Amino acid sequence: MGGAATWYDCFSDKPMKRGGPVTTNRVANLLRKRGSPQRPTFLELFFDLVYVFALTRIVAELVLDYTSGHVAETLTTTLSETGETLLLFLAMWWIWTQTAWMTSRFDPFQPAIQFVVLTTMLGSLFLGVAISGALAETGLLFASTYVAIQLGRTLFFVVTLRGHDLRHVNMRALVWFGASAVPWLTGAFAPELTRNLLWLLALAIDYLGGTLGWPVPRLGRPHVSPWAVAGDHLAERYWLLAIVALGETILTAGSTLLHGPIVAQRISALVLSFVTTVLLWRIYFYRAGQILGEAIAASADPGRLGRSAELSHLLMVAGILLTSAGSELVLNDPSGHAKPAWVGAILGGPALYLAGRAVFEHVAFARVSRPRPIGILVLAAIAPVMVGLPPLGVAAAAAAVLLGVAVSDAIRAHGRPLERASPPR
């Protein structure tokens, strides 16, 4: 991931000279300044709007996966079903999180950075449109748009950051994105199984490159960390994405209720979906959710901790989306018989969310409180007996487990001051 660097090292408004030409004022102006506000800008909030649409399309695809033929009859699904939807989600996630890190490093008030954000937003809109058939007739649109975003904005910074060490970081990233572009574009023309494998390879290249800091032989080692961050800014970006994902569950539940008779059982399912969303929100912001920025700032390696926070939010957002898909299944058939895969979605979403929340807690406090793993174990233990029961009852059981975690958190916090961040060393 590259050597650790302080926030000031990587975002200073002073020209830098480390074995290369002095950074020009034009380049320095693109970087966040020391002491500048770290709150997300209106541009970044505007950018997130397209992800409301994209996440809604992901959930719609999950629901189709869980209601199509043999998939609903088994707890395991094939790569050609929900695995495809997972591929799309991971691609969208990578675009969003890199944009968040970019605006944490660069000044989003600069016109050049605004241009990059807005073009990425347009590309993300095309990705959202392509999701519904991304592995069929719109596969080329999805793959080419993804590649254009990654190569285009990385090349932009290679050209723009001449004279700054960050240019070397982007040059390495450009090599990795160029390598992943081959299986992305080739897969768009391949048969289904081959396409899935090629796109999985492309994602593996992208994620591995980012995790390792985009190492490239013979290009030398950059003098700045690829993952240096403005902690408070990045923390709020994750908070906002969590709110966007939770908002998607409300949007999906309300829309689903309108697509059928408004009867007592479906109204009960809507209320239960809302209560579940509130509990997810409450569990997220308990303790660790309030001090992520402080934890990143207090870490000996803020970049590494920021990446751990990214992983925790990946798991939590995936859990929220799976919970949203489960809620839609319940709304569509609240009194029927829960198929195995439905139980997997209704209970698996909260379990995945609690797993991500446990990682999140470890990021802030270097520990995990017992209610989270206990909640996961309870959800796993009750899953087999839930098959065949009314989906509304399964959803109620999931909500009861989340309520237990939330109540346990409230009891622990009662009368105690907010803990200070103590991230792992």
UniProtKB/TrEMBL annotation:
The chain crosses the membrane at residues 42-60, 85-103, 115-135, 141-161, 173-191, 238-258, 264-284, 342-360, 372-389. This is Membrane protein. InterPro entries: Low_temperature_requirement_A (IPR010640). Keywords: Membrane, Transmembrane, Transmembrane helix. The keyword Lipid metabolism does not apply.
